[in-house]
């Protein structure tokens, strides 16, 4: 990262993905400047709706990672105005501040911006047709970032699929994901049943958050000019999508398969299997049957290959959780 002219600013550092990015950047020896969205003991606050605060933050940075957002389908549906202000306008504000100061940007978008896939595997150039307020506002943010940065300042956008797993930070604290994997693990560790929304065959790409964070480090590294800048330099690329990557593992699982893996791990570790309950879905939106991604572009351009295998991670994680529960009961 020797060509970075300042620390790497991480917006949304108090969040799940931002926290993992901070941990991975720090582990890579990068000077990081984290910022939270709201008041926290650990990090200063930079609200992406506050143009002056964003400008001041970006000013001293050598690169910015924007992991700030109002995240989740229900959360954004409940407050569409906030979703628009944070995910759409906020992303544009960050990109504009980066452009003004020629600061490279790594932006986090979401698979929700794509909506129902027309072709599989989903690639960065797949048409966007979001089905939710969350996806729609993420798409506005994604487009704003591309429009503002193209030809002006290097930027990489990640269309993130479904991160799972626990983040250990250098400060010792851990953040759990909100994915179906984490949900099932928590239920199994507590001896509860695993509720699967019908039909259960819906398939999603799942990526460990640590692998997602490694991609962020690779992107920062690439933007800093120390590796393979030629393949992502906006002055050399004519197609803006060259610098957007779908960030997934390339491994997709149905919800029933995930529940089956958790149940099998539970049987192996405790001798008993949690019940699987098929439940009616809480939403009447049509279900996305499959969302698979091709990880090759990430590997080719950024040298990123996901390392975490879901099945072995589930076993290790459940074992750790059961052990922690036993220790706290004994204590
Ligand atoms: N987790 C997923 O499943 C997933 C999947 C695809 C894409 N993504 C994308 O990844 C990014 C991070 O998601 P996440 O899962 O880490 O979400 P998260 O855990 O909810 O974290 C969101 C972060 O954004 C910050 N934030 C919220 N409002 C803000 C504002 N007005 N100004 C500045 N910061 C603000 C929050 O700060 P405070 O908590 O301090 O307020 C928090 O640090 C988002 O762009 C999201 O769309 C996530």
Give a description of the structure.
The chain has 331 residues and is an alpha/beta fold. The chain folds into two domains: 199 residues, Rossmann fold, CATH 3.40.50; 97 residues, Alpha-Beta Complex (UDP-galactose 4-epimerase, domain 1). It contains ten helices and 14 strands. The chain has a six-stranded parallel beta sheet with strand order 2-1-3-4-5-11, sandwiched between helices. Helix 1 crosses helix 7, helix 6 runs parallel beside helix 8 and helix 6 runs parallel beside helix 10. The site of NADP nicotinamide-adenine-dinucleotide phosphate (NAP) has 28 residues, from helix 1, helix 4, strand 4 and strand 6. Pfam families: Epimerase. InterPro entries: Epimerase_deHydtase, NAD(P)-bd_dom_sf. It comes from Natrarchaeobaculum aegyptiacum. This is NAD-dependent epimerase/dehydratase domain-containing protein.
Strand order, sheet with most strands: 2-1-3-4-5-11
Order of helices and strands: EHEHEHHEHEEEEHEEHEEHEEHH
Task: Determine the strand fraction and express it as a percent band.
Answer: 15-25%
Tell me which CATH architecture of the largest domain applies here.
Answer: 3-Layer(aba) Sandwich
Give me the Rg, rounded: 20 Å
Instruction: Please give the count of helices.
Output: 10
Please count the beta strands (DSSP E, at least 2 residues each). Answer: 14
What is the global morphology?
globular
For the record, the CATH class of the largest domain is: Alpha Beta
Hetero compounds = NADP nicotinamide-adenine-dinucleotide phosphate
Give the biggest sheet. Answer: 6 strands, parallel
Mean pLDDT: 91
N- and C-termini, Cα separation: 45 Å
User: How many structural units, i.e. domains?
Assistant: 2
């Amino acid at each position: 990262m020797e060509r970075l002219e300042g620390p790497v600013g991480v917006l949304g550092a108090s969040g799940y993905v931002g926290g993992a990015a901070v941990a991975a950047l720090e582990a890579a020896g990068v000077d990081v400047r984290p910022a939270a969205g709201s008041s926290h003991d650990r990090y200063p606050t930079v609200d992406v709706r506050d143009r002056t605060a964003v400008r001041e933050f970006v000013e001293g940075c050598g690169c910015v990672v924007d992991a700030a957002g109002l995240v989740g389908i229900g959360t954004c549906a409940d407050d569409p105005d906030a979703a628009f202000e944070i995910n759409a306008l906020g992303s544009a504000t960050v990109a504009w501040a980066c452009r003004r100061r020629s600061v490279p940007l790594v932006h986090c978008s979401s698979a929700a911006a794509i909506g129902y896939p027309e072709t599989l595997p989903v690639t960065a150039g797949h048409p966007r047709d979001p089905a939710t307020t969350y996806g729609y506002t993420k798409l506005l943010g994604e487009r704003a970032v591309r429009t503002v940065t193209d030809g002006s300042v290097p930027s990489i956008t990640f269309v993130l699929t479904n991160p799972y797993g626990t983040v250990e930070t250098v400060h010792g604290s851990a953040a759990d994901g909100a994915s179906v994997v984490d949900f099932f693990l928590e239920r199994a560790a507590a001896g509860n049943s695993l509720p699967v929304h019908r039909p259960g065959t819906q398939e999603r790409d799942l990526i460990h958050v640590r692998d997602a964070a490694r991609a962020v480090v690779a992107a920062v590294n690439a933007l800093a000019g120390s590796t393979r800048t030629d393949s992502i330099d906006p002055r050399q690329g004519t197609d803006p999508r060259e610098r957007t990557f779908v960030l997934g593992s390339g491994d997709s699982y149905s919800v029933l398969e995930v529940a089956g893996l958790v149940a099998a791990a539970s049987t192996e570790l405790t001798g008993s299997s949690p019940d699987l309950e098929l439940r009616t879905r809480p939403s009447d939106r049509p279900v996305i049957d499959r969302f698979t991604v091709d990880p090759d572009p990430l590997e080719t351009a950024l040298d990123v290959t996901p390392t975490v295998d879901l099945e072995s991670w589930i076993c290790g994680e459940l074992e750790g959780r059961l052990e922690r529960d036993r220790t706290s009961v004994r204590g």
